[in-house]
């Protein structure tokens, strides 16, 4: 009988997806290293993983790595705009249940998440792999009886990790969690160097705007904001930064960026990028003060940063014109227009294809290692990060591809520094 346990946009895209997956595999040496290292021992045998991460080509390589190591998986995307339909089709063509397409409604989004939790013949997950915390929340809220069966969740992003620590603080977390985001080889690479490439990609594909000479306002100067600021400055923009944290604000000034408030910056910026993981960063008041033709976008996880409701509220008499998918123009009563990308959702995944494969190989290697340890080892209730040794192993798996050669400590040097020749090379408190 043919395989029907999926819902994607267009199965005729499967071959295109498969070709791009093959190219991505060559750019994802960490995942390929993990496949080689663990395939024979099948460390994920018996694991039934429900996954909720942007259904991209890179995620397809992640999914197939989990399957290669013995897991059964069911998948949905963690954002309504982020699926690459050819990637989803290729996964479905490989008889892996996937429920994801670009441009889902909110209702369809939640339907897809539920499909990953309840499969045919009583299939239920015993491990979760999440990005942003929606899957984790749904399981806690709608499937409380399942929480005991679930050995844990590995969480991809800053916002999801933040939600996990909040749940833990309220005594609501019902299974152990691994904070993948705070592996150094995740947040100091994906959030920083990933966004440094994919922010510009999203803005350019959406608008073709010339960035050089423009004033770009970056809200939030954490790992993501740092990458975004660097990208825009590299293209010749004048970068303004807003921050609430004096340390990050001081870092921005050291890079030569002007740090100011949104109240000041609103009337100055040509392009606004929110990267805070916070809410109400760009408000209606700010939009009223903005220049004609200003571009607004968000690269943080949720669409809580730009006040879309202000733009959509009929009482404000703002006329909306769709330019193309994920690009909308809003005309104010005085004739001024603002251009909003991906309706305030992640611009790099909504308007482009997210981060490049190589950096996602770092992130997803941490994900696979987290899944392996959650499945095979015992964890008490809590939120954990992976040991530094594994972080170093992930980095190591990516060096050869770039032609990097690592210096090896001599026994005398190791003794002088008081560290093992094979690492870990840094204490836990080292910040990179
Ligand atoms: P972070 O915590 O390192 O940085 C956020 C920064 O925003 C902090 O420095 C914080 O002080 C600042 N901030 C908070 N509220 C603010 C406000 N109201 N105004 C100005 N600044 C404010 O977090 P990170 O890792 O940079 O992530 C930021 C967001 O991006 C999160 O939602 C995360 O999940 C998401 N993310 C998105 C990715 C993508 O591909 N689009 C990739 C990685 C993370």
TrEMBL record:
Residues 191-354 form the S-adenosyl-L-homocysteine hydrolase NAD binding domain. Binds 1 NAD(+) per subunit. Pathway: Amino-acid biosynthesis; L-homocysteine biosynthesis; L-homocysteine from S-adenosyl-L-homocysteine: step 1/1. NAD(+) binds at residues 157-159, 191, 220-227, 243, 299-301, 348, 355. Substrate binds at residues 56, 131, 156, 186, 190. One of its GO terms (molecular function) is adenosylhomocysteinase activity. Keywords: Cytoplasm, Hydrolase, NAD, One-carbon metabolism. Its cofactor is NAD(+). InterPro entries: Adenosylhomocyst_ase-like_sf, Adenosylhomocysteinase-like, Ado_hCys_hydrolase_NAD-bd, NAD(P)-bd_dom_sf, S-Ado-L-homoCys_hydrolase_CS. It is found in: Cytoplasm. PROSITE patterns: ADOHCYASE_1, ADOHCYASE_2. Pfam families: AdoHcyase, AdoHcyase_NAD. It catalyses: S-adenosyl-L-homocysteine + H2O = L-homocysteine + adenosine. Its main location: cytoplasm. Its EC number is 3.13.2.1. NCBIfam families: ahcY (TIGR00936), PRK05476.2-3 (NF004005). Belongs to the adenosylhomocysteinase family. HAMAP family: AdoHcyase. PANTHER family: ADENOSYLHOMOCYSTEINASE (PTHR23420:SF0). May play a key role in the regulation of the intracellular concentration of adenosylhomocysteine. This is Adenosylhomocysteinase. The gene is ahcY.
């Amino acid at each position: 009988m043919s395989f029907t346990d999926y819902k994607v946009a267009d199965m005729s895209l499967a071959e295109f997806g498969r070709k791009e997956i093959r190219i991505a595999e060559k750019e994802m040496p960490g995942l390929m290293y993990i496949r080689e290292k663990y395939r024979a021992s099948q460390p994920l045998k018996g694991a039934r993983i429900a996954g909720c991460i942007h259904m991209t080509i890179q995620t397809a390589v992640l999914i197939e790595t989990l399957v290669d190591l013995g897991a059964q998986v069911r998948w949905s995307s963690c954002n309504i705009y982020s699926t690459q339909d050819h990637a989803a089709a290729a996964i479905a063509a490989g008889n892996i249940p996937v429920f994801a397409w670009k441009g889902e409604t909110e209702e369809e989004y939640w339907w897809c998440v539920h499909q990953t939790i309840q499969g045919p013949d009583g299939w239920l997950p015993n491990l979760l792999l999440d990005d942003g915390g929606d899957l984790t929340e749904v399981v806690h809220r709608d499937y409380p009886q399942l929480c005991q069966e679930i050995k844990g969740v590995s969480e991809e992003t800053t916002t999801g990790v933040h939600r996990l620590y909040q749940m833990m603080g309220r005594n609501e977390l019902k299974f152990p969690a691994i904070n993948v985001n705070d592996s150094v080889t995740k947040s100091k690479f994906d959030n920083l160097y990933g966004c440094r490439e994919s922010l510009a990609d999203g803005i350019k594909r959406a608008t073709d705007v010339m960035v050089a000479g423009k004033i770009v306002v970056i809200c939030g100067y954490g790992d993501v904001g740092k990458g975004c600021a660097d990208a825009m400055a590299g293209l010749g923009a004048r970068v303004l930064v807003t921050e609430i944290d004096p340390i990050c604000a001081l870092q921005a000034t050291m890079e030569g960026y002007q740090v100011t408030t949104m109240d000041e910056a609103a009337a100055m910026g040509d392009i606004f990028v929110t990267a805070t993981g916070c809410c109400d960063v760009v408000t209606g008041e700010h939009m009223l003060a903005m220049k004609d033709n200003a571009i607004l976008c968000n690269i943080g996880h949720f669409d809580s940063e730009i006040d879309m409701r202000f733009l959509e509220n009929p009482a404000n008499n703002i006329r909306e014109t769709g330019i193309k998918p994920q690009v909308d123009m809003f005309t104010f009563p005085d004739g001024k227009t603002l251009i909003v990308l991906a309706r305030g959702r992640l611009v790099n995944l909504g308007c482009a294809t997210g981060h490049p494969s190589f950096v996602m190989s770092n992130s997803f290697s941490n994900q696979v290692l987290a899944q392996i340890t959650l499945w095979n080892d015992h964890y008490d209730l809590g939120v954990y990060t992976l040991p530094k040794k594994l972080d170093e192993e992930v980095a190591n798996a990516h060096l050869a591809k770039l032609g990097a050669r690592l210096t090896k400590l001599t026994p005398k040097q190791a003794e002088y520094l008081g560290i093992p020749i094979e690492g870990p090379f840094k204490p836990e408190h080292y910040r990179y």
